[in-house]
Design a protein that fits this description.
Helices cover about 45% and strands about 10% of the residues. The chain is globular.
């Protein structure tokens, strides 16, 4: 149930039933020639809505734009990490005033993770309000391997706008997929030391701003991947019982 579509009376009633809020956060950036600029935001909202239906929770306001500095390209919009952090803090503070006791942050955009974590730590230490974060494109990877859902693995399956991402879109928003533009892009930047972090603007991988194999993506793979990952998320949330703060 989306908070922004609720009236005040229904919000008050629902909030008394559950004080956990799901917060989707995404990005607006290039996502290959075949997927929309708002891919991360669209996935965050679609998955959040499905998760809310399963858990009976409220979906709070979406943060539609994140820090996309590294993926600058046609149509990309980026905000400073400080701006994103303060905006998210204000949203959480408002919901805490209403009585929120737990937040479930859902973001497919990796650059949002560190910022969300900072906010999660702050509200835990200052208000004893608990949080968890679902980093969507990272958590689908072990599910895909365990269930043998995808044809590829590694970057060819989980790179930018590749098999996993395209398959998910074919399932949740097929109307936004340009199937005649699917292609396979092999990494052109060699990395023999993946354990060390390096910083390459995404344009270094090619003019189409994608990485991996989208040609073998299917709606069935997307359905299996999305539903199996949701099952895993629900399993975690049903046993999620973090301890209260302790005085030091």
């Amino acid at each position: 149930m989306k908070m922004l579509e609720m009236n005040m009376r229904d919000f008050n009633k629902k909030f008394k039933e559950s004080s956990t809020i799901i917060i989707p956060a995404g990005a607006c950036e290039v996502w290959g020639p075949h997927l929309p600029l708002g891919a991360d935001t669209i996935v965050a909202e679609e998955v959040a809505n499905r998760l809310a239906e399963r858990m009976g929770w409220i979906v709070g306001p979406t943060l539609p734009v994140g820090d996309s500095t590294m993926v600058w390209g046609p149509g990309t919009i980026t905000v400073r990490p400080e701006s994103f952090k303060m905006y998210l803090e204000d949203i959480c503070s408002s919901l805490i005033k209403h009585g929120a006791r737990r937040f479930c942050f859902l973001s497919p955009h990796v650059a949002n993770m560190a910022i969300i974590s900072q906010v999660a730590w702050k509200i835990k230490l200052e208000h004893d309000v608990d949080s968890c974060i679902f980093d969507w494109w990272r958590i689908v990877q072990p599910v895909a391997r365990e269930k043998k859902i995808l044809t590829n693995d590694g970057v060819m399956a989980h790179g930018h706008a590749s098999e996993a991402g395209t398959s998910c879109f074919m399932y949740i928003r097929p109307d936004l997929v340009k199937s005649d533009r699917l292609q396979k892009v092999v990494p052109c930047v060699e990395n023999k030391y993946p354990e060390f972090q390096q910083f390459y603007p995404f344009v270094c991988y090619g003019d189409d701003y994608m990485l991996g194999d989208a040609t073998c993506a299917t709606e069935e793979k997307g359905r299996n991947l999305v539903e199996a990952t949701l099952d895993r998320m629900v399993g975690f949330l049903k046993q999620w019982n973090p301890p209260h703060n302790k005085e030091i």
